[in-house]
Amino acid sequence: LIALGMAAWVIKDGIREGAYLSAGNALVAADDAAALEEVMKNHAGTPSEASAAVLLSDSQWEQGQQDDAIATLKAEIAANPEHPATSAAYARLAARLSSQGKTEEAKAAYQDILDRPQAAFYAPYALISLGQIAKTEGDIDKAKDYFSQASEGYPGNPLANSATKAMQFVD
Hints:
Radius of gyration: 20 Å
Helix content: over 70%
Number of helices: 9
Largest sheet: none
Structural class: mainly alpha
């Protein structure tokens, strides 16, 4: 009985690995929005689905479909909160909301980055962006605080130098 259980597990694991490989190959071959949508549809539940969603959002944004791009990112974030691409999706979402002038939504998305330990690489970017928003809104003390957090809290991150420079131009 144990041998039968082990055999079933090996078969199931082999099928899963095959599905992941097939999905990865489809993702690499996807060269336009339609192909990315096919990856998402045909390989739902695989890691490639989330990666395809982020890439689809990029394509939609470049084609001027800004609201669709944002909706795609929001759907990916909701469906795949633990996927490695989700941190990049949060960063893209925040930047795109900000570029559309949706400041409150952008601030919330930048804060989401800060609240996700797995998005630590993007934290200085979020802090600098929040600092720029605070500066634009005239809250100089808050801007300085964000820039300081970015430069002092993430000294090994390449963006830390940008935060230090940004602090020079706050006053």
